[in-house]
Structures are given as C-alpha cells and as structure tokens.
Design a protein that fits this description.
This protein is of the alpha+beta class. The chain has helices at residues 4-9, 11-21, 27-60, 64-100, 138-144, 150-157, 167-184, 199-205, 229-235, 290-311, 357-362, 388-396; strands at 120-125, 148-149, 163-164, 189-192, 196-197, 216-217, 223-224, 240-242, 248-257, 276-286, 315-319, 331-339, 344-353, 365-367, 373-375, 377-386, 404-405, 419-420. α3 runs antiparallel to α4 (64-100), α5 crosses α12 and α8 crosses α9 (229-235). The radius of gyration is 27 Å and the shape is elongated.
Length: 422
C-alpha cells in the first residue's frame, strides 16, 4: 500500500508504474473516491461536533420547552448523521479496495516487457555439463532410483501429488540443513512459520485481493500460504522497532501450497510445478532507505547464488520485466537453474524488495534516533525450494550408469556417500 498523499502528489508516476507492470489500475478513480471520502469525513465530523453541542445545550437547559426544542433538533441531526455515516461506510469500502489495488512503482532499472519471456539476463555461472550419453530427465532418474512416486501421489493427493522416498527424502533434508547453516552463518534467525493463516497477513503482504485465485481457502476463512514470507511478515504486524535493532533477518521454513491457477497443462510431468512443497525463505526488514534496500536485495541474491555455487549447479540470473512483477514488488531477480534434459533454464529462486509497500499494510515501523517513526522496508528471497531444486541437482550430476553424484557439501548429511544408486 502506498500513502494516499504520495499518490495524490505523484499520480502520473503511479499511472506510469501501473502501465509498466501491465496492471489495469485507474488512479483517477481512486482520487475521485478519496475526494468523496474526505468530503464525507468532513461532513460527518461537523455533524458529530454539532451533536456534542446539542448534548451540552440539552444538559444545561432549565426550561422544559427549550430542552424539548433541542431534543427535537437533535433527532433531526442524528438522522442526518446516520445517513452520512452510511454513505461514508460505503465510500470507505470502495476507497479501501482501490487503495489495496494500487501497484507499487517499479525501479527505473526494471526492464520493459509483458511476461517472463521478456526478462533480461544479468549473468550466468557455471559450465553446463557435457555428457557422453543422452541425459535422462529428473523424473526418469528419480523413478529408476526409487526416489519418487507420482503415480501413488496422484492417486492419494490428486493431480500434481507426489511422494518423495528414500534418498529423495534424504536429499531434501540435506538441502534444508545445508541452507539453514549457510543462512545462520550470515546472521539469519531460523523460524518455523505456519502456512495456515488469517486473511490479514495475505492482505498485508499483497497476496490479497489480487492473488486469491492461486490460494487455497478453508471453510473457516483462513488461507494456505504459498511462501513463508506471509507468516514471517505477519509475525511483526503492529510492531515498532528501534532503529538500532534493524535489520531483522529471518530464515523462515514452511510447507507451501499453491493452486497453480492458470497453469493448466504446464509442466505436468515431474516435480517442477506442484501444489505442495517446502521452502526456506530469506526475509529482511530494514530502515526506510532505497539504497539500503538495494544493498540487501543484492545480498539475499548473493546468498542464493552462494548456495547454487556450493552445489555446483549452473544457473543464470535474470532481472524480471515490469509485466513479470507482482503488485508490491519494486524489483525482482530470478535465479534459473540449468536443466540438461530440456536444454533450458528453469526458475528456482526469486529475490524481491518492496520498500514500505507491505509494512504500511501490516503497520510495521521503527523509531529513528530523533524519535521519528517510519515504516520499515521489506525484502524476501527463496533460499531453497524443495523438491524443485532436485531437478537441477539430479540432472546435472547424473552418471552414464544411471547413478547420481551427490554434491560434496551434502554428503555429510547422506552418510558420507558420494553417489545415489551405488
């Protein structure tokens, strides 16, 4: 959410930001609703003031006729006030909906474009493996090595269901532990966060109302989160920090759920696009300074790249174009890992910063040295998401005999073994 005064003073910038993000938003409609809201607020406040004045007159009146005259006038005023309050309530509902729909302004460095096809490559890392044989897909490798069962997963859990088994499960545990050690070594505090959350946390982080179609909703009006960011940010709702306590760095672990609405027919084979998975998410709250946000944005990206490099997985970094940004994101990078069986890169990590878009909604602030209160800036990044990362890990490390070499940093969690399958 942006400040309404900022929106009024920069309506052209808001309109340009919406255009760059390819989001249909009418800033003039918001300003018209705000004009009406302010007009009604003024009217309601005046009538409430008049009502208080009549109360004083009624209390102080000695003459019964005079007192009755004030009472009768009060009834007329009360009816008028109730009418204005009802109008204000309706206008506030429209105004709040429009305020929640205002897109954040993308950074000037964000590329132009409509979809992920227009994202701009920033850099690549690692050498793509050269095989003396035709490389197998991750699903072929996993089924041959008995690491996954998607057939039984679909029978029991439905479409895109899966079971990870044996070394498939152990690899996931190894990745979580390795990533957690990497992040805690960089000052992140581990936190296991809930996935089943009330609506407020989704509104606060910007996943509602726009992203509702991709969320699972329960019968008691709670939702299942698709990232630990929602609960981690919600944890600090209505908090006021001292500036000296910033930055706050959280490594949030959680199961995640996504309906994958609009992804019908996409990536139906294997474990790339699933309804249920697990993530370790980097979340940072920092002071309200653009340069500080940019520094931490590069830092959380570097943490994810460090993970990929430690595992020896070739990847590229892309800067997401305007049309591939969410409502609240100022800028986003994706890390895409190399998939030998398809000879293409597939997204495994995303790193975003939001300025105070989320903290305004969630009311997360800090006091600076002068006692002035500001909204914090927020950032988040996928540290590791499983089982998706297994695709690149298995395919890039496959051997001609059908076994898979375990990346060296993970071997201590896998009983010291060097290979899966022997």
């Amino acid at each position: 959410m942006l400040d309404i005064k900022f929106i009024r003073d920069n309506k052209g910038l808001i309109a340009a930001g919406a255009l760059k993000k390819h989001i249909d938003f009418d800033v003039e409609a918001l300003l018209a609703a705000d004009d009406k809201r302010r007009e009604l607020l003024k009217d309601v406040e005046e009538k409430r003031s008049q009502q208080n004045a009549f109360n004083s007159k009624i209390t102080g009146a000695k003459d019964p006729e005079e007192r009755q005259k004030y009472i009768d006038a009060m009834k007329i005023l009360k009816a008028a006030l109730e009418g204005e309050e009802k109008k204000l309530k309706d206008v506030m509902k429209d105004w709040q909906h429009l305020m929640l729909s205002v897109p954040n302004i993308p950074d000037i460095s964000v590329p132009e474009g409509e979809s992920d096809k227009d994202n701009r490559e920033v850099r690549t890392w690692g050498e793509k493996p050269k095989f003396s044989f035709t490389p197998k897909s991750h699903i072929e490798l996993m089924e041959a090595l008995d690491l996954v069962d998607t057939k039984k997963g679909s029978e029991i859990a439905g479409f895109r269901g899966y079971y990870l088994k044996g070394d498939g499960a152990l690899l996931s545990f190894a990745l979580w532990q390795f990533t957690l050690e990497l992040l805690t070594g960089k000052g992140f505090r581990p936190m296991i966060v809930p996935s089943l959350l009330r609506k407020e946390a989704f509104l606060g982080t910007g996943y509602l109302p726009q992203g509702e179609e991709d969320l699972y909703k329960t019968q008691d009006e709670t939702y299942l989160a698709g990232t630990g960011e929602v609960a981690a940010m919600g944890y600090f709702m209505d908090t006021v920090f001292d500036k000296k306590d910033l930055p706050i760095k959280i490594a949030a672990f959680s199961p995640c759920f996504r309906r994958e609405a609009g992804a019908h027919g996409k990536d139906t084979a294997g474990i790339y696009r699933l309804h249920e998975f697990f993530k370790l998410e980097q979340v940072i709250l920092c002071e309200a300074n653009h340069e500080t946000s940019v520094i931490f944005h590069e830092e959380i990206l570097a943490n994810a790249e460090s993970l990929m490099q430690s595992l020896g997985l070739p990847y590229r970094v892309v800067a997401n174009c305007g049309g591939d940004l969410g409502l609240g994101q100022v800028k986003k990078y994706d890390i895409e890992s190399w998939r030998p069986s398809l000879s293409l890169y597939g997204e495994t990590h995303s790193a975003s910063y939001f300025h105070d878009f989320q903290s305004r909604r969630l009311n997360i602030k800090y006091k600076d040295a002068d006692g002035k209160t500001n909204f914090v800036h927020s950032l988040n990044n996928t540290a590791v998401a499983t089982p998706r990362i297994l695709i690149s890990l298995l395919e890039n490390n496959q051997q001609e005999d059908g076994t898979v070499s375990i990346p060296e940093p993970l071997r201590k969690y896998m009983g010291g073994r060097e290979y899966i399958g022997k």
